[in-house]
Design brief:
There is one protein chain. The protein has 320 residues and is an alpha/beta fold. The chain has two domains: 195 residues, NAD(P)-binding Rossmann-like Domain (Rossmann fold), CATH 3.40.50; 97 residues, UDP-galactose 4-epimerase, domain 1, CATH 3.90.25. It has twelve helices and 14 strands. The two termini are 38 Å apart.
Length: 320
């Protein structure tokens, strides 16, 4: 029987991955964890829940032993924008936390570990269009640096100790369920919320900024599909490129305007523009498609229609 631990479960991905995994494997088979306490009014939806600070290995060990965990989705991380404001924290959580997870997995014979990477591994010297699976990795952010190091560390544990470690280089993730969590692509999420609530948005990147994105249902589907795939077909472990759609901030605003004609978007680039400019515009994900069957379902138009429908319904209920 699978017993899955999700670290960082209260983040953007984790809060939706929990439901998907529980629907698939059973409610009690998935243990949520974070270093924060779930909101009291929603605490029942998180249970079973455990406190885990990935920078403190003993908290991991306690939960692994208590629940006989044999699979970990390691999502606890400091994202790009927050990481630039506090690089020491980003290093501690993203590197030392990952090392603790891998060591606990090695010591306690965890069968599988999912550790996501990011397009932040790429930098200004990386090809901007159709960025290859194998290419130059010279990021200019602490977040990107930790993700490159994390990929290498995961690959080391896979080859040295035989751990089944898998990971995806996520593009920007857009969700209708959770607010942004401190990443450079947060504008592509916040714009929908502000469009529904205020009919306007001030974007922190230029109108012509193009970045790769994926809608959360596809990101969740892809993550679980990778973990369930037969690894005998793998040529990679923790660094699979993932692509779904690429669009500019202006194209995103224009798509929203098709549904909300009064919507207006202005552009006031801040420090995150420099980060965005260092990342690719589009991704070559042929390795993911060939090795584990990745195929996204949403494009910009389908995602926008679904996002606005869900957010509008919640706004009308006073829940946005």
């Amino acid at each position: 029987m699978k017993k899955i631990l999700i670290t960082g479960s209260m983040g953007q991905i984790g809060s939706e991955l929990i439901k998907a995994l529980r629907d698939r494997y059973g409610h009690d088979a998935v243990i949520a964890s974070d270093f924060r306490t779930p909101p009291y009014e929603n605490k029942d939806q998180w249970n079973p829940f455990e406190f885990v600070d990935v920078t403190k290995r003993e908290t991991l060990i306690e939960v692994v032993k208590k629940h006989q965990i044999n699979c970990i989705y390691h999502l606890a991380a400091i994202l790009s924008a927050v990481g630039e404001q506090n690089p020491q924290l980003a290093w501690n959580v993203n590197i030392n936390g990952l090392y603790n997870v891998l060591e606990v997995a090695r010591e306690y014979h965890i069968q599988q570990i999912f550790c996501p990477s990011s397009i932040a591994v790429f930098g200004p010297s990386t090809p901007k269009d159709h960025t290859p699976q194998e290419t130059i990795l010279q990021p200019t952010t602490m977040y990107g640096l930790t993700k490159v190091s994390g990929e290498l560390l995961c690959d080391y544990y896979a080859t040295k100790f035989g751990l089944d470690v898998r990971g995806i280089r996520y593009p920007g993730i857009i969700s209708s369920e959770t607010l942004p969590g401190g990443g450079t692509t947060d504008y592509a999420v916040a714009i929908y919320y502000d469009a529904v609530k205020y009919n306007r948005y001030t974007c922190f990147v230029r109108e012509d900024t193009v970045l790769p994105m994926v809608y959360m249902p596809d990101a969740i589907y892809g993550s679980i599909s990778l973990m369930e795939a037969d690894r005998t077909h793998f040529q990679h472990h923790s660094n699979f490129n993932m692509a779904s759609m690429s669009f500019s901030a202006g194209e995103l605003a224009a798509e929203i305007k098709k549904h909300l004609p009064e919507f207006t978007c202005t552009y006031e680039p801040d420090f995150r523009q420099k980060i965005a400019d260092s990342w690719p515009r589009s991704i070559d994900d042929r390795a993911s498609r060939a090795e584990w069957g990745w195929k996204p379902q949403y494009d910009l138009a389908a995602m926008t229609k679904d996002m606005l429908a869900k957010l509008t319904a919640r706004h009308q209920q006073g829940k946005l």
